[in-house]
Amino acid sequence: MVRTALSQTILEVKNITKRFGGVEALRGVSFSVKKGEVVGLLGDNGAGKSTLVRCISGIHSPDEGEILIAGKAVKLDSPMQARNAGIETVFQDLAIIPEFDVVQNLYLNREIRSANPILRWFGWLDSKAMAKRSQKSLNRLNSRIPSLTEKISNLSGGQRQAVAIARAVSWGAEIVIMDEPTAALGVEQSAQVNELIRLISSQGVAVVLISHNMQHVIDTCDRAVVLYQGRCNADVAIGDVDKNTLVALITGAADMTLAQPA
Ligand SMILES: Nc1ncnc2c1ncn2[C@@H]1O[C@H](COP(=O)(O)OP(=O)(O)OP(=O)(O)O)[C@@H](O)[C@H]1O
């Protein structure tokens, strides 16, 4: 599926190198993502995908290279700095608390405190405001979540993903990175998550998606960036490749480095 991405480049990763002792996990990786674009980040086990995502999320500091947001170089030395730069990452564990309800999870660590100074002093939260804004965020995503007061443990895997994605975009993220969002889901739930990814991209959010599922990549992404042994092996429009080519790029049987845009 190919959609017209908005033309402004929002994320640029330039020549990122990251070493762990003697292991060079990333060797001069560059790629960029436009507003509203969905880019698949592919690669075999150990290719460097998680390390790259961790550099963009402020968890690892690259040894070399730079990251630009909307054309400006940014220092992402902590997850908070990445968040402040408009980058949200939905990791596989989703970082949601099963015993908490939907609103509590959407506002986890960012609770709205009561407007009343006395109640505020006692640490009271503004539940009404959080519920109202949560409803708005979920409406924006055409949510199928039954109730805001539903405990996360009662939701399906796809609905949990939806809560994690809603939390990411409800804070105004311009770039959302997702690590294997459909890995643990069945066919129908995966399709719903894909729909959600397309929806946020149509609202201008740039999405970087780690996936090992080629059909998912073909169905959801505009472009694929393939890592092989820490290097960028290809940066291709999904319309220009088929599943077999993607697999060949991932295993290193093919290399489209020369075909990449300058
Ligand atoms: N904290 C670390 N310390 C040492 N080596 C690391 C560390 N993190 C990653 N590596 C190494 O860096 C390389 C890239 O690993 P990375 O986890 O980024 O790959 P990946 O593409 O995400 O793999 P997978 O699909 O299996 O998650 C591997 O050789 C890995 O062993």
UniProtKB/TrEMBL annotation:
Keywords: ATP-binding, Nucleotide-binding
Name of a matching Pfam family: ABC_tran
Keyword field contains Nucleotide-binding: yes
Domain (ABC transporter): residue spans on this chain: 11-254
Family matches, as Gene3D superfamilies: P-loop containing nucleotide triphosphate hydrolases (3.40.50.300)
GO MF, any single term: ATP binding
Protein's name in the database: ATP-binding cassette domain-containing protein
Species of provenance: Rheinheimera muenzenbergensis
